[in-house]
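#help-structures

NK: newbie question. if I give both the sequence and a SMILES, will the prediction place the ligand too? trying with pyridoxal-5'-phosphate
OV: yes, paste both and it writes out the complex. here, I ran yours:
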Amino acid sequence: MPIELFEMERMQSTWENLVDYDMSESGVRPLTLRELVEMGFDLEEFLDQPLGYSQSNGTLELREAIAAIYPGSSVEQIEVTNGTSEANYLVALSQLRPGDDMAMEAPNYMQLPGVARSLGAQVRTFSLRQETGWEPDWDEFERALSRRTKLLYLSNPNNPTGSVLSGAAMDRIVERCEATGTWLLSDEVYLGAEIDRPRTKSFWGMSDRVIVTSGLSKAYGIPGVRIGWIVAPKGLAEECWAQHDYLTIGPSKMSDRIARVAVEPRNRERCYARTRAILAGNLPIAREWVGGFGRRLTWREPQAGAIALIKYDEGLPSSDLAERVRTRQNTLVVPGAHVGLEGHLRIWIGGREDYLREGLTRIGRELTALFR
Ligand SMILES: Cc1ncc(COP(=O)(O)O)c(C=O)c1O
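OV: that's the protein plus ligand as structure tokens.
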């Protein structure tokens, strides 16, 4: 089956390097290789390493370090991938068959619906509701998950709302997955990017139906090395590895080596602290900007992650508004339509202060014109 366009990613790949202000990003401004050298990456030693293939499912050292993050997991349960997106893709590719259902929350990172449909599966969504602090709509949730549901996809902390599921919500979701025999795929790439709240609890260990994907791109602030991972029951991890052999074989040697440094407990905490500091500095700027529009703009402040989901009080479709911002202000934003929630814009808040202020000013000009 032909695969539909992943609209948001295509819009970003088309424009992100051409606009003056890319406010469509979703992580914090990234670390440099120099910062990673300061954390212990031995560049000098690496210069003499033959650039051969690396261990395709991740070097043992890296898998050991990742397994240590997820209590009770072993190295056979870890598959190291090219980014979290490849991790998600491998799970879908290995599990979904024609006639299956895949359930997911909306709004969300919209990678998997297109993949699921291309594999002949049906996608059933349930809403996260702003009125209840982005809790799932439980009636919709019950309807979306049945015995046909092979896979449930969540992002927690969620892209784009920045919300974190409560413990009670997590219990309820796990219970339902166990009752319906569904794999619960929890994409935790934003875990560690909490702004002013305790660390998000992982779904890992709550049930043997749980699969976790994550990577270095968001909370760690290192998207350019393209390292992600899958943590799963052994059989499922092996099925993902079998797909990986066909797709990209494995991650690059240099990336694997850098990742080993980043995931060391001390460095991981340093990355998280850096992310938190950037976001804690930027959030008040975004708050003041939203407040400046009175009731015409509303949001629930993100609890985690580098994006703000803003609701605007006008009927204009979000893609049209984003297009206005791009063509008139040379600034890229993500329309709500690309993340499964019309009437919103998704705005990056992870950049440098001056960049954030100018980006917001430009978006604000179009909003002011719209509200006039
Ligand atoms: C929830 C979520 N998962 C996965 C990805 C892709 O991550 P990566 O760059 O690690 O492939 C993103 C990127 O925005 C994301 O927001």
